[in-house]
Model the fold of this input.
Amino acid sequence: MALLVCPRLTSPAPTMLIGGLGMGFTLAAARSALPADARIIVSELVPSIITWARGALAHLFAGVFEDPRVAIEPRDVHDVIVDRTGGFDAILLDVDNGPEGLVALANERLYCNWGLRAAYAALRPGGILAIWSAFRDDSFHSRLQAAGFGVEEFSIDPDGTGRDPPHVIWLATRSHKVEEGGCGVSA
Done:
């Protein structure tokens, strides 16, 4: 996701929110692609994942905790999005198996109409919301558009063999224009 998003960012010092630390692959890609004056905030809901990243999985996270661009916030990404109106150039969501609360029902609030409007409000004009999914969802593409985003959809072969169904990454871009009412204004 980060490799799709970073080249599209227009700010010379972008601020990126990554929802979910996981195994650190999205964060590693963002660190390699963003400039020295970027800011990367990683919101991780499960404290034990942060503990593993500092301990048993430290070899996968080499240099992350010393990187001055990176801040790890042990919080729900939804709360970070709602708290920071206009605070991000990019939001990358890799917190579930797709645009539904499959793993955690509470994640549904990220992908519902209200959640998409909150993400829109948290992005600066031209900002990008990126969402990974293990499956296609045409209705989600439509929901992104209804929330005011311009949408690009990418199919990714998950293992390079073409045997499994493709994964999907949606890049949803907030308009550069200032909107009156609608999705650009917090309700």
Observations:
- The helical segments are 2-5, 25-33, 47-54, 77-83, 108-111, 113-122, 138-146.
